[in-house]
Amino acid sequence: MPLSPIAPEAFEKIAVGIDRPEDVVVGADGRVFASDHQCAVAEIFPDGSFKRLGPAGGAPNGINMDLQGRVLIANFGIYDRQEGPLQRFDPATGVHETLVAEVGGRRLTSANYPVIDRAGNIWCANSTHAETWPQALDGREDGFIFVLRPDGSTQIVAEGLKFPNGLALSADDGFLFCAQTSGADVMRFPILAGGRLGKGERYGPALGALQVPGQPAPAHEDLGYTDGVGMDAEGNLWVCLPGADKVVAITPSLEVVTVIHDPTGQIVNHPTNVTWGGPDLRDLYIGSIRADYVLKTRCPVAGQPHIHQRV
After folding, report:
1. What pLDDT sits at residue 295?
2. What is the tens place of the pLDDT at every residue in 53-67?
3. In degrees rounded to 5, what are phi and psi of residue 122?
4. Which residues does residue 268 pair with via DSSP β-bridges, in sequence order?
């Protein structure tokens, strides 16, 4: 089915007043959670209100969920130069714990987004070791992807990346997709036995322009800084372009289709992640690094279920 654009006016603003809702995750039971800088996560209720859960600390960024309904939190420490570990919060018990703080002797400073495959491997990006935003997005290749395996072992499985950000899995868990924010593109890695990755390659074309010091700034709608990614049920990889207030999709034939664009930024304001939920996985949620709300609408295509949504 061809992808049809979604107008900004089709979105409803929910959880108004939330603090930097970078990402959203929807449980198998329909409960909706979002990252919030004033707590571990916030729960968003059907009427659009929200409640903050868990302790404050760091900068909750990308989130996901395991089979037990616990929320995985990539804590992006670069904002206040704190640690940036992979954490987990259990909404049922209130337990908040750190899963990974360092890998191979390298401290996590900017864990960004976690995803779990069928084998139980947790894949997560650590975007950079830079101390400030101008440094973080200057094209340095100090980012990496690490894995936390079911046996508790950890390993850096891909490195030399340009601010690795959102992650997504192919339907068969054969490939891991990773947005490179300061590469303006997406990389694809084959997943190998034992929780390892093969050699990565660019998936599709560059998705826009980047700001180059000393050169004129690209037009707003042309900015290609990639952020969160999400796979739909038809194999289209949705990619958020926050600087352009846009979401595009890379089709299986590697065509790039604009599915959401708000030239004014009044509604779709710096979108950072796309997530699907609802009984038919056609409720579409969009997080943001700039807005104080989450967006929700009905989507013409269902999302590919995460592991916790397959039960």
Report:
1. 99
2. 999 988 999 999 999
3. -100, 115
4. none
Burial of 198 (0-12, 13-18, 19+ CB in 10 A): middle
Task: Tell me the whole-structure pTM to 2 decimals.
Answer: 0.97
User: Which ranges constitute the DSSP H helices of 95-186?
Assistant: 133-136
Instruction: For residue 286, give the nearest of 230, 208, 236, 226 by alpha carbon.
Output: 230
Tokens at 80, concatenated: 């206040």
193: exposed, middle or buried (C-beta count within 10 Å: 0-12, 13-18, 19+)? exposed
Q: What pLDDT sits at residue 135?
A: 87
Burial of 153 (0-12, 13-18, 19+ CB in 10 A): exposed
State the Cα–Cα distance between residues 115 and 142, nearest whole angstrom.
21
Looking only at the bridges linking them, the beta strands covering 164-169 and 102-103 are unpaired
Look at the alpha carbons of 207, 213, 218, 220 in this order and tell me if their dihedral is positive or negative. Answer: positive
> Two tokens at 182?
């300061």
**Residue 294 and residue 160: Cα distance in Å, rounded?**
33
Residue 279, helix vs strand vs coil: coil
Q: How far is Cα 117 from Cα 121, in angstroms, rounded to an integer?
A: 6
